Amino acid sequence: ATPTALLTGTGRGAEMGILIKGPQILESTRRVDTVVLDKTGTLTTGEPVLGDIVTTGSLAEEAALKAAAAVESGSEHPVARAIVDAARDRGVELVTTTAFTNLPGQGARATIKDTEVTVGKADLFAEVPAQLRAALDAGTGTTVLVGWNGIARAALTVTDTPRPTSAAAVARLREQGLTPYLLTGDNEHTARAIAREVGIDEANVDAGVLPQDKFAHVKALQERGRVVAMVGDGVNDAAALAQADLGMAMGSGTDVAAESADIVLMRSDVDAVADAIGLSRKTLRIIK
Ligand code: ADP
Ligand code: MG
């Protein structure tokens, strides 16, 4: 491959909002046969909105929201932002907390008036009432629990919708001969619902994956002979982006993701992934 043609390819990419970090990256782009897509912030807008609140006992919905929002005001996660925004919209006061702890891929925790309040996945709680277990398995949103001293007392569901372009973009990737996978820290139920909406096979959905395990899923595909592109936006995607044969970060995502990737997609749209693949194939065809 002549360097000039490759540079022309990267220049063309830049015009399309596809920032390719070096001319040699076009070669790995061309060889890709598998595309692993993160869910939140990649296939979806990453701007979920709070919907249902289910509470147990005498707990009021507003009290559940108030405690959850206070804890989540310390977190940058999309679920946290949805909860804090809903509290603001409803005029619920954000009380101060101490000892905030971020629990990556699981939730967050802080102390409010000497009581430990946790928001996040069921695994974080010693006790989850049956009514809340049922809420976790219902609907297509992401349901997180709120609890005091290890006992879950309420369930909050946030819904994040696919980007309008995601389904067509996944179809384009298939036409290019690539196999799409969905890799997410979110639960199986939500992951499958989104996969159905965008056209990813149920067998190719890996849900409930902790941030530190995402890269291992990419590695497992590589060990099966796949040449893998990983597309993500979050801090939790960084190691997987680095592990992949080709890492692609959404421009709207975190700096860590962009730094770990080979390509940054300024349009923040899965359609740009198909554009990047198309561009590399065209560039290298011209060279040969
Ligand atoms: P994804 O892979 O979809 O980008 P993450 O790994 O960031 O998702 O998070 C996985 C799951 O962990 C979320 O769907 C949510 O259930 C839970 N979670 C993570 N961070 C928080 C938080 N700050 N508050 C509540 N739940 C959280
Ligand atoms: Mg994400």
Q: Segments where pLDDT lies below 50 for 5+ residues?
A: none
Calculate the mean pLDDT score and round it.
93
Q: Would you report the number of β strands?
A: 13
Q: What sequence of helices (H) and strands (E) makes up the elements?
A: HEHEHEHHEEEHEEHEHEHEHEHEH
Structural class: alpha/beta
Bound molecules: adenosine-5'-diphosphate, magnesium ion
How many helices? 12
Q: Please, how many domains?
A: 2
Largest sheet: 7 strands, mixed
Overall shape? elongated
Here the CATH topology of the largest domain equals: Rossmann fold
- What share of the residues does DSSP label as strand, in percent? 15-25%
Q: Nearest-angstrom radius of gyration?
A: 21 Å
Looking at CATH, the homologous superfamily of the largest domain is HAD superfamily/HAD-like
Helix content: 40-55%
Subcellular location: Cell membrane
Organism: Ornithinimicrobium kibberense
Family: Belongs to the cation transport ATPase (P-type) (TC 3.A.3) family. Type IB subfamily.
Protein name: Heavy metal translocating P-type ATPase
